[in-house]
Known about the structure:
With 664 residues, the chain is α+β, with helices and mostly antiparallel strands. The chain has a domain at 249-410: Flavocytochrome C3, Chain A, domain 1 (Alpha-Beta Complex). The longest helix has 26 residues, at 556-581.
Amino acid sequence: MEHQQVEIQGQEIPVHIINTLIVGSGAASLRCAEQLAALGQTDIAIVTEKIGGGTSNNTGSDKQTYYKLSVFGKEPDSPYEMANSLFQGGAMHGDLALIESILSPAGFFYLAQIGVQFPYNYLGGFVGYKTDHDPRQRATSAGPYTSQQMFQCLYREVKRRHIPIFDEHDVIALLKYGERIVGVIALDKNKLNESNFGLVLFQAENVVFGVGGPGGLYKTSVYPEVHLGSIGLALEIGAKASNLTESQYGLASIKFRWNVSGTYQQVIPRYISTKPDGSDEQEFLNPYFPSMGQLATDIFLKGYQWPFDPRKIANYGSSLVDVLVYIETVVNGRKVYMDFRENPQGDKRLGRFEFEALLPEAYNYLKSSKALFGTPIERLDKMNPLAIELYRDHGIDIWKEPLEVAVCAQHNNGGLRGDIWWESNIRHLFPVGEVNGSHGVYRPGGSALNSGQVGAIRAAQRIAHVYTQSEVTFDTFKSVALPQTEKILKKIEKWLSEKSSSLTDDLLKYRHEFQERMSRNGAHIRELASVKKALSEAYQQIQKRDEIQLAQRANIPIAFQNRQLVLAHAAYLQAIQTYLENNGGSRGSYLVMDPNGTPVLDELGETWHYKPENPALREKVLVTQLNEKSIFESHWEARRPIPAEDYWFENVWADFRSKAIFRK
């Protein structure tokens, strides 16, 4: 790494010159850094807003799943079988599905080797289980904190290799020269009070962009509060995105953000709602179910049918619970709680809660778990006591108090578009992890963790074999960086010139506006007219993103976060609008409202009718990009099939030795 300085408006700005800069410090970013080092690349560094502050280290579930090729068991499996499982989810390119399958053992075994506690039997076999959308027993887990273990073990390896880390640095702009990336502009948050506001420049031949999903776009979200996402930075310079329409939503606690899946539902807690002040407690699910057995079984099924899925609404399916929770919270303005202290309370029509009334799937599971007794919290204490401890560690004792929940944004299946090496249309920019939109409509549970590791490996391979030499001169870098940095300096000075006494309130109010818009119009309940109106409002809000006043320098990073987040939410709304205008129906994890469609439930009236899926759109990928007029546009492209070529070993060997494969 080289170090230079440039002078802009009389201010000295440090410049770090490096071959590969990794933005972000989640599991995908850390794996890419480690893989680059293993391949002999020493001129690398990580820049991150906070080590350990991302989703990898701050999320989990009842049993956080890692999805990979079956590596134990009598049931046969192959990379093509797994690729087909990924591909069948729809709107996913076949070559990406095959790559994620082929490299899944490499990603998995490395994690096990460095200390992630994936369980194995006395023979050394990593036994698996079935997860959602999984025809094989490919799933495994290291417990509620699988991704946290991944982060911790990978971080330990990065430190062992002495890879430089620029911590407490917010990347606020990506620098593009022609159709390639040349570096980034960042804020050193420990130097905001200096005369240059902590601005730092990085000249980089390659930028690995591992900034996570769009957690900051939603009001109702299970993304950790410390994680906002930075996809807007790449969208702003023309990076293409795929399938921004496809996100995953599900029930989660909101005081402490955590998915309430798995055992939390399988012990069948009582669902209640209240007015905002806590009064008027109601068993709001009761009027909509034909029997207590059906109601209780649906709650149980939310354990492993956790994501909202429109295919699981009909005939009192488990996703009816999500719809009813949404109506109670968003439409009726009430609060919803899961109460583990009592069993569901019936009425004269439904009858009382009895284990014998459960449908066989729920009854047999609880019987096998020796949990046909007591209250939900007592069953949870037997089946999964760690699930209780998790909330206690975050100040919530579900032995003594109910748990407030809502239907929350949880994961973006879409994201930035990458090729078979996870390289963007902006050359030398490699989006990895959740910010990469390789997934389709449906994906097996846990495949996101695998995808992040595979993408990291592929990006490192491409860089280490093709992009090791510097092509960008310092003069070329300065021709791009200096004008943009000067604009940023002037912008900050203007923000600070007329000081406001209510800075934080104003900035958060601005953020809450687009978060509220996304949760109401761009989450799991969608309607074309509302989305059109929301998109128009989004562009109006974008025009005001620099009309702010800052009372203190500590809030400069918040202002830049808002700038890229508000732009990103317009991209998501525009993609959703294009999808709906092209006869797109309910699929994945969202419901498209249509007064002429299928009723959710007769008792809910004509308002709650939805449009069925248009299966033809599964054969396409929706691509979104910012045009020259700063308006997002979307178009469809046919998805690529799973490669079916035969590969002769001697030919592959020759291409590998000549490095021809890395240039495809």
